Amino acid sequence: MRAMSWHHTSPYVLPRRRPVTAPPRRSRKTLIAAVGIGVALVLSGCDDSGGGGDEGARATKPAPSSKAPSTGESGSSSAPASAAADKPLVAGWQTQTRDEHHFRYDVPAKAARWKVLDPDVSLSYTDKNGKPIVVMTGAANYREGGCASAPNPKAFGEAGKGQLATVGTTGGGTDGTLQENARNWAGNWGFVAYGGADHKPRIEVSQAKPWKRNGIDGYTATAEVTVTHRPSPCVPPKAVVHSIAQKLPDGTMHGWVIYADQGVPHALTAAEIDKIMNTVRPTDG
């Protein structure tokens, strides 16, 4: 498999969105935004901006002069599935389900420092205008609260707050091919999570290759990230991102993504990442 350079320009870009009024305070579903990335999204089929995918992004309007995390409500009409709705494929692990993206997966137990978030919690990076450019839901974090790091000093919220890996689901659009989306999801998350436009990391993304496991017939791609801005030893020198992309009968494409620090204490090994990836499966229906 030959690694290819990945560029954050593409004929496929997110559509321009109209401002949306923020939801009332009684909303319980949360969008965690890391602002100030300012990168053009390389996305062909991901519609997380509100065209039918993760609508947590559409329901958010960050304050113009504030850099505090924003709050939004997911537009999904289906109730989130309970983590107990499906037994984990690995005994003792925790199950996460995101019905909207038709993905279910497992991560190690709480004792191993893994935390499964509410399926509706959205993790997002936004551009300089406060608009989300990548969004994931159905997420889980590894080793929260550790050595805080932020390759992009303007990033806050989910990125660079101590976790060594994050997993989640994304997508919902129809543009591009499944192979393109697999590569773009891997490249985009590597770009924004490990520097963004202010401190662009060096990224190589593999060709997408078939992924046929546990009932998923899709593609996977890997991004190898070299971090260029390391203001402290907490910022990892390298990172890795893996994606799994699947296409539903309605033509929409959905992705599962894991991005993980490398070259720091307690970093996930390739074998540990593979074990998590091998639990990824479609939801019923």
TrEMBL record:
Pfam families: DUF8017. Residues 15-26 have a biased composition (Basic residues). InterPro entries: DUF8017 (IPR058330). Residues 65-85 have a biased composition (Low complexity). Residues 1-26, 50-87 are annotated as: Disordered. Signal peptide: none annotated. Residues 87-283 form the DUF8017 domain. This is DUF8017 domain-containing protein. It comes from Streptomyces sparsogenes DSM 40356. The lineage of its organism: Bacteria, Bacillati, Actinomycetota, Actinomycetes, Kitasatosporales.
